[in-house]
Amino acid sequence: MVPTTWGREGGSERAASIRRILASPSRPDDLLSTTRRRLLESTLPVGAAVLAGCLDRVGSTADSAGGRDLPVLGWYPGWMREEYPPEDVAFDLLDLLYYANFEPAADGTIEFTDEHDEPNLADIRELTAPGGPGEDVRTGFAVGGWNSSTHYSDAASSPESRERLARNAISLMREYGFEGFEIDWEYPTGGGRAENARREDDVENALALVEECRRQLDEAGEADGREYVLSYSGPSDPNHVRPLDVEGLSEHLDWVNVMSYDMSGPSSPTTAHNAPVYGSPSAEEAVSTWATEGMDRSQLMVGHAFYGRAFDGVEPGPNDDGLGQDFESYEATIDGGECARRIADGAWSYHWDDHAEVPYLYAADERNWVSATDPDYVRAATGFARDADCRGVFCWELSYDYDDELLEAMADAASGSGG
Q1: Domain of residue 96, residue span
Q2: What is the dihedral of CA 87, 116, 182, 268, to 10 degrees?
Q3: 193, 294, 349, 414: which is deepest, by most CB within 10 A?
Q4: Is residue 97 included in any domain, yes or no?
């Protein structure tokens, strides 16, 4: 999903310090060249900036470098480099930083999807190297995504293409010093973009792909003296979870990032919450479904939406708040900063759903409605993850967060304060 951007403030002392690090003579110039798309087709040597330490297969607090009860993972959107360069990441609020994203080709090779990918990866490697501001932050990346699952069915369809995808992902991981990667196939159970390739045996092939990635990662870890990690982007809709071989996946995955958001949008029949914590649909329902189907709760990371969804042409309805009403058009996906600005704007009335534990906004004069995000929602979602005995929390995505307000709320709640 490519975001609607509304800008963010920069010039902090942290960013200035990081710029000095990135300008140091030790930075390898050969990694700064850009290319629109590149195929990774051969095993490459281990990168020079591989971090020490490893992640356990099942567990939670072992992932937290900041002494938090729950590890905090943030997704960095590679296409947002110009507005939100890697140096602006608040590494002190994170335990894991994952990069979005790369795309599998039909034959299992992996393609860069943006001209900024190579400089981004070079920056992240430098920033998380020993002595850098993110030296204690573990890193990984996604293969796939909503806009990058077109050929996943093809890439997973044969032993040869599965072997190639795993091998190329590990090459990329080693080259840039990552500690693992994520399979982000949206979705082997259907419901993704209309142009995505599909097969009747996609569910079986998804498990086979995970098994192949796990096998090669374990071999690479043994060779490198490391324990590399493998995660999976998990849908929140029970109809997309239940057809999966969840028990089979659980044997090979370190964790699942449960995408407990995008529960409303342009195709919704009425205005509804984007990321409700409780109710149906909700994060609670998604976690319960994954656990019932066989994934240990200590392997589940709960997603937080750092963005909202705005709708136009909404009548007030019986409660004068626009919730659950028809809409004429979908306005936009708006970032956390825009949500904060609308919350502060007197033209918008702020509402809190005590059942779902999420905020929403309504502007009666303009007939506009927003499923919003704010720190109170973030704290509620993180509190749920702790109460549900989940592994940790993550956000989609970091550039949506105005002045790190939401990430600070998540980190505080994950530490047991403010949650």
Answers
A1: 35-43+50-306+374-414
A2: 100
A3: 414
A4: yes
Q: Read off the pTM.
A: 0.87
Q: If you ran DSSP here, which 8-state letter would residue 226 be given?
A: -
How many Å apart are CA 220 and CA 45, to the nearest integer?
Answer: 11
- pLDDT tier for residue 399 given thresholds of 50, 70 and 90: very high
Per 3-state DSSP, what percentage of the chain is helix, strand, and coil (rounded to 5)?
35, 20, 45
Q: Does the pLDDT of residue 378 top 80, yes or no?
A: yes
Query: Using CB atoms within 10 A of its CB, is residue 14 exposed (0-12), middle (13-18) or buried (19+)?
Result: middle
30 inside domain: no
The answer to the question of residue 101 being in a domain is: yes
pLDDT for 125-165, tens place per residue? 999 999 999 999 999 999 999 999 999 999 999 999 999 99
Task: Return d(Cα 350, Cα 362) in angstroms, integer.
Answer: 7
Phi-psi region of 26 (alpha: psi -120 to 50; beta: other; left: phi over 0): alpha
**The residue to which tokens 């902090």 are assigned:** 12
Number of structural domains (the chain) is 1
CATH number at residue 69: 3.20.20.80
pLDDT given at position 66: 62
Closest CA to 189 of 152, 143, 141, 161: 152
The answer to whether 252 touches 235, Cβ cutoff 8 Å, is: no
